[in-house]
Amino acid sequence: MENFKRKHDYEGLLVVIEGTDGSGKSTQLELLKRYMQDMSYGVMVSEWKTSRLIAKVIDEAKERNLLNASTYSLLYAADFADRLENQIIPALKSGFIVLLDRYYYTALARDVVRGQDIEWVKNLYEFAPEPDLVFYLDMPVDVLLKRIIGTTGLDFYESGRDVGFSTDFYKSFEIYQNRCLEEYNRMKSEYGFISIDGTKTVEEIHDEMKKHVQEILDTGILD
Amino acid sequence: MSNLTEKHDLKGTLICVEGIDGSGKSTQLALLRDWLKSIGQDVIFTEWNSSMLISQTTKLAKKKNLLSPRTFSLLHAVDFADRLKQVIEPALKAGFIVLADRYAYTAFARDVARGVDRQWVRKVYDFAIKPDLAVYFDIKPETAMNRICSNRAPKFYEAGMDLKLSNDPYESYLIFQSRVIKEYQSMVEEFGLVKLDADDSIHSKQVAIRTLLREILKEKGIEV
Q1: I need a surface site. Which of A51, A204, B89, B157 has the fewest CB within 10 A?
Q2: Do A78 and B57 touch (CB under 8 A)?
Q3: Three-state SS at B148
Q4: Quick one: closest CA in A to B86, which residue?
């Protein structure tokens, strides 16, 4: 990693954790954040769908089943654009490590499964800088299903019920998440994901992420 | 390629009017609507930034000047996509004449004038249905300013004050709207917009529009 090259021109480091719902992203994000903070780096965390104004619109629209495939894609892109321009890029410019829970790969997977043209979706996110590291938590669908049913329960959109695969919640979730996984698998090599087996223990996964982050930090890129 | 360059094959007819505020497009569309209704045609009217889903949020964000041109562009696209899928497309399938006060071309003109990439915004809207008739009302920015600002100063966004072109709202308005008009003019050829002179009388513009519409309806086997 001596010749580590940034994929953007900003001073900071852009690190993304991707994976489907229930793959353990938030837990790992928290651990990684603490690890970096303990070494005195400036860390900023930003999660998917958390912009001012727009995130609320998405939640309300979902609650009332108001979204179609086009408005779904565009609203998420607007949410992302706002966070990118107001939080992520300013933080990168001032040399922060920006840790993101999901990035535009999430949109690519979900929107394509909803029948949108992939080139159209890519254009919506064309302004997004390429991350320095993308960790992908790889989880088989049957494990995911158990995790989600055991925690939050099945949600209408997370089960892809709006796409109309099946009126049976369980069946719909299975088809939808499988399709999303296919999209993620396709993106692995295209975007150079560091794929980690999500069924490993929390510590094992964290150690693997730490190793990759440390390699970059050891080049002195943020010093 | 884009749906905006290919003729649709739906039963209904889609008409839109374009131009900067003060160009008289809404007046012309209202006259057209009343006439079509009076002769028994099924008409539906839809206007820019009016969807239940997002229009209030966009207005609030504007009031607080919170968002970047690109985010605004995406929010207007949300509004448009919502109306297209819930109102315009179903009405066209059912055979209505759909009258749209502003269409995707408004985004192409305004967003590009705000610095958004020309090709990017065209791709964002490439799900839009090509109108059967798109009329553009060409006006000089000075004339429009005299019409809409006879008893008030130009508003923040219509003057493009967010772009910091000038501290004087009147001067900023003229610079910004000139840019918008330039984009519209280049779309006359690009998208086949029918250009009408906003300085012409209300009557002569309405006669011109009805003549164009009659031709289009005739092709669909409707005599009016």
Answers
A1: A204
A2: no
A3: helix
A4: A68
Establish if A118 touches chain B: CB-CB under 8 angstroms. Answer: no
Neighbouring CB atoms inside 10 A of A81's CB total: 25
CATH of region A13-138+193-218? 3.40.50.300
- Chain A: give the shortest CA distance to residue B79, in Å: 8
Which residues on A lie below 8 Å from B124 (Cβ)? 74, 123-124
Domains of chain B (ranges, CATH numbers):
3-218 (3.40.50.300)
ipTM of the complex: 0.90
pTM of the model: 0.92
Residue type, B33: R
Per-residue pLDDT, B201: 97
CA dist B21 → A25, B90, B159, B205 (Å): 48, 28, 11, 17
- Say yes or no to pLDDT of A145 above 60: yes
B120–A126 C-beta distance less than 8 A: yes
CB B136 within 8 A of CB B193: yes
Are residues B75 and A54, on separate chains, in Cβ contact within 8 Å? yes
Contact at 8 Å (CB) between A222 and A12?
yes
Q: What tokens does A191 get? A: 């975007």
The strand ranges marked E within A59-188 are 97-101, 133-138
Three-state secondary structure of B13-72 = EEEEEECCCCCCHHHHHHHHHHHHHHCCCCEEEEECCCCCCCHHHHHHHHHHCCCCHHHH
Residue B165: partners with Cβ closer than 8 Å, 6 or more residues away? B171, B172, B175, B176
> B84 CB near a chain A CB, below 8 Å?
yes
Name the residue facing A53 among B53, B66, B81 (closest C-beta).
B66
| Cα three-residue angle B154-B160-B161, rounded to 5 degrees | 80
pLDDT for A1 equals: 40
Q: What is the pLDDT of residue A213?
A: 97
Q: Which residue has the tokens 């892809």?
A: A160
Q: What is the mean pLDDT of chain B?
A: 95
Q: Measured between alpha carbons, how far is B132 from B148 in angstroms, rounded to an integer? A: 29
Looking at residue A2, what is its pLDDT?
Answer: 43
Task: State the pLDDT at residue A17.
Answer: 98
Average pLDDT over residues B205-219: 97
Q: Is residue A126 within 8 Å of B120, Cβ to Cβ?
A: yes
